[in-house]
Queue: 2 jobs
Job 1
Amino acid sequence: MNRLNREQIAARVAQDIVEGAYVNLGIGLPTKVANYLPADKEIFLHSENGVLGMGPAPTPGEEDPELINAGKQPVTLLTGGSYFHHADSFAMMRSGRLDVCVLGAFQVSTCGDLANWSTGAPGAIPAVGGAMDLAIGAREVFVMMELLTKSGESKLVAECSYPLTGLRCVSRVYTDLGVFAVGPDGARVIETIDGISLDELRRLTGLPLEMAA
Amino acid sequence: MIDKSVSSFEAAVADIPDGATVMIGGFGTAGMPDELIDALIAHGARDLTIVNNNAGNGETGLAALIKHKRVRKIICSFPRQTDSQHFDAAYHAGEIELELVPQGNLAARIHAAGNGLGAIFTPTGYGTELAKGKETRKIDGKHYVLEYPIRADFALIKAHQGDRWGNLVYRKTARNFGPIMAMAADCTIAQVSEMVPLGELDPEVIVTPGIFVQRLVAKEAV
């Protein structure tokens, strides 16, 4: 079975982002999606610390400690980009102006519940950042993740066991083994990777999956 | 003549009492008013409640304030980071109380205080652990959580340029929480990279009007 690697998952997500979209790429894995957005299309990247029209990482030596992304990495500003304060930045998501947000996840449920901020481990210091705001704010929340945990359990689940980040907020799940639509009608398989069968995906997830219409 | 500039960082923070609630601007280290925090450490105020997005990075700024055990409680969204060792140690030792707030709710609650509002209904966090026990309401078919404003006795912020009336402009993503914290504190103290003569800042681009700023200190003045 040929799984997609993380770069390939990022490239697959990028295919579904259209010109003119306002997009927030979450910290970590989703940041890679930026590397695969087509250079000939104008797509507006938002970062919740207060920048719209974010550009790629600066060339070494050109970093500015006062120009960073939400992951606190140095970035650049595209011509036409803008800066704003935190209340305006989160207003952009809460009021539904962000078209797409791409997030990582510990678990996603078939109805679109998201768990990505805490494993609930005792003694761990909790941290949430903008995850809950992004989950309920963007018009469409795409999750990118590996379908299975290292021990082989499906992260696409009937019901999340980890603490929730948002309820019924995810619309698509991009994984190394398939792309899924989730929501009120449950999980549907949009595409499978490299010939993996629907039956095999059912077996791996333990879910009564069907192909999307 | 009104001149809100003060001569030193020490003088700017000298009346911050023990037990005060202090907002500190910055997202990570961008916009963190390090020199004001150093002066606050030297001043010695204790049992502070701090409002910031994080809980200190590395050894400077807020991290140093926590290291010196001046913080009783912190209200923030993202305390745990690879370089938050001083907060981590204080938290595990039970020396610091944490109120974890989603980042957008943190901004909205600070903004609400600055707007003079009694409370807000926010969709963020609905149905999660962070909204447990809080009042909710369904408005036009959507669920919201009741959240109260976060105000402060003092705000310590960093801006790029300021004038003697307290008008401020910021630089790039160092703006972050500065403008809304300035609105939400009884006394806002801004450290600026440069003081400019009154009239030099374009009125069309002033981000924080001077009414929200009580004191300024220029970095080069010290």
Note: The radius of gyration of chain A is 17 Å.
Job 2
Amino acid sequence: MSDINRTIEELLVDYAEALRDGCIPAFLKSLTSEEGRRIAYSRGFWEATDVVRVLNSAGFADKAVTPNVSLFISRVDAKIASRLKKARALSRRKRTARARHLT
Amino acid sequence: MNRRLRNALKGLMDPDIERRRRVMDSFVRATFESFIRYLYRYLGNEVECEDVLEDVYADIWENPARLCNVTSDRELLRTVYLYYMRKRLREVYRRINRNLHLSQEGLKRLVAPELGVFEMTSQSELRQLLNRMLSRLKARERRAIELWMEGMSNRAIANELKTTVGAVKMLKFRTMLKLRKMLCDHCRED
């Protein structure tokens, strides 16, 4: 991804590779302003990205499944607990502010 | 939709947040595989998929209203993508967008696009369809795509096909457009 001013074909292939290898941010950061403009106006690029995603999904998505779902569930539960805690702290602050306002 | 998932969805509509929290366990178990596979389409990175999905589930727990009328697996995936996943996907990339040369609109379109023709096709359907379409390609085009799907670099593919890297890139681009046309035609026929 080091070439400058890549053609639209090169940009698509680089995007496909980045998606396959899981490094989309690196691809996005590698874009020059000229390339960004080129992408924005290329219908072919946008059409081909649909297929890139399909290929990515059909070819590689199976490896994304974590064997340990229980571990993931505990992560989700911790996230929910943290949101609950924040919501409770917020309502407590509001209550205190209201009580202070009344007195 | 299986009974376990239907019950989990019903439980998610409970106004009590603690009860909803307990239901999340069975909801995550019932949906994790399909959700993470779907997210992988856009991220290509299992660690990021899990991070995004963690927020998606927490969002669902916080505000499950969008899922109240869901009756099928496909509808569930569609609703979750439209109302929960897309927001999170955009957030992931908004963070790095400060120094990017791609417009905000372009970025949205690239990382969290609108639902297209193929977005709601299931994994197995896609695989079958793709195999059928690949068999209709020219031998060289098919080989280039197959080698790429095996994880080979452009240079390795060029060596295998005895051509240049530039020619491989061109070939892949043309083949992807050809595949898209074939897939679109197939979907239209259906």
Note: Residues 66-103 of chain A form one domain.
